[in-house]
Design goal:
381 residues; 2 domains; 2% strand; two-stranded antiparallel ribbon; globular
Length: 381
């Protein structure tokens, strides 16, 4: 395997060899975690590899298309930071808060002062008091961790590198969240069913089901929130302002989910719950589009809009409307002299095509004995 490609980009093997101390520490932690799951439950290990490897694969593919912007270690460290550091500081806190909420509700209901509709109202109020501050702290820590490594990339590549790093942090945290609740469910099943403990197939099926449900419920919104925070960080928005919309939308999502399950218990509450998830994700995408429209054209050239998973991609009409009168960069393939031009003025495009045609005619003219070096350079409008 060659150490470096013709275009100057490094291979993955070379990037792994050049990991900094932080990236190497996360790599060791991932190995230790895999050994832990192997000893704990092989079935859960398969689910852990899938729920962690698949999201990171999409981040890796995104980096492969833009690897000249930052190193692989920068993205890998972001994923590891979300998976280990952010999850450790938040997930155990969230679990503790849920235990506190359950104990408070048990004591209130044991008093016999609430029943029926009043009991559901008190339950919703308790979760409201606990969830909103928790989401605020969660998004604040996420934004702080993203800003901690801002200085590791150059100014010229800062926008796209920041965006990939912020999304990697959120994706790592979302993967750890799915794995955490899978472990909780696995522990609960292990204490109640001896057949489950001795069956690899049951462990695999049950852990995969739990991880899949948690991923569908929380991962898209977490990744979108991380992308939005990355945009806000890039354009210099303050810490509190950058987490405002993610906090609002995610708090509404969690509280509405609890409300639906209280009003419509059982499977009947799943339909409005899923619809709420879709609606909140749509609102997050709209907010991302709004922020992207406010970014300067230089940023949009470098970052290329949001292309990860189809989230927040600007429509063609929006792009033309925003950049009307602007001239975008064009790439000329000297082998075929084929020109790609996007968002250019009509007069500029016609002039460029005429220049390309002139160079083609000059090179194919049998009377010309020599082609000067100037024929291979096309002055762009």
């Amino acid at each position: 395997m060659r150490a470096r490609r013709m275009d100057g980009t490094s291979t993955l093997l070379e990037q792994l060899r050049n990991l900094d101390s932080c990236g190497k520490a996360y790599a060791v932690l991932f190995c230790i975690t895999s050994i832990f799951f192997l000893l704990l439950a092989p079935g859960v290990l398969c689910t852990a590899i899938l729920s962690t490897g698949l999201p990171f694969y999409f981040i890796y593919k995104w980096w492969r298309r833009n690897q000249t912007e930052c190193t692989f270690g920068y993205i890998f460290s972001g994923f590891g930071m979300g998976f280990f550091v952010l999850s450790t500081s938040i997930l155990w806190t969230s679990f503790a808060w849920l235990v506190i909420a359950s104990n408070v509700l048990d004591k209130l209901f044991a008093m016999g002062a609430f029943d029926g509709a009043s009991a559901r109202g008190v339950t919703f109020l308790v979760y409201l008091i606990l969830l909103v501050p928790f989401v605020f702290v969660e998004e604040g820590l996420k934004a702080s961790f993203i800003r901690m490594r801002k200085h590791l990339v150059t100014v010229e590549t800062e926008t796209k590198a920041h965006l990939m790093h912020a999304t990697a942090v959120s994706t790592g945290y979302a993967s750890a969240q799915a794995l955490f609740w899978t472990l909780v469910a696995h522990g609960s099943m292990s204490t109640t069913s001896s057949k489950y403990v001795n069956s690899f197939e049951l462990q695999l099926a049950f852990s995969f089901l739990i991880a899949f449900c948690v991923t569908c419920v929380g991962t898209p919104l977490l990744v979108l929130a991380g992308y939005l925070i990355g945009l806000e960080t890039t354009r210099g928005t303050g810490l509190l302002d950058s987490i405002k919309w993610p906090t609002y939308l995610r708090s509404f999502y969690y509280l509405s989910a609890i409300g639906w399950l209280l009003v419509l218990p059982g499977l009947w509450g799943l339909v409005p719950f899923i619809l709420t998830n879709v609606a909140v994700s749509f609102c997050m995408v709209r907010r991302i589009k709004s922020v992207e429209r406010d970014m300067p054209i230089e940023y949009l050239r470098r970052v290329g809009y949001l292309a990860l998973g189809g989230y927040g991609v600007l429509d063609e009409d929006d792009h033309d409307h925003q950049n009307q009168g602007d001239i975008d960069e064009s790439e000329v393939d000297t082998r075929g002299l084929e020109t790609q031009h996007f968002g250019m003025k009509d007069s500029g495009a016609v002039d460029l095509r005429s220049r390309v045609k002139g160079h083609v005619d000059a090179m194919t003219d049998p009377r010309s004995e020599e082609i000067s070096a100037e024929s291979f350079s096309i002055e762009m409008v």
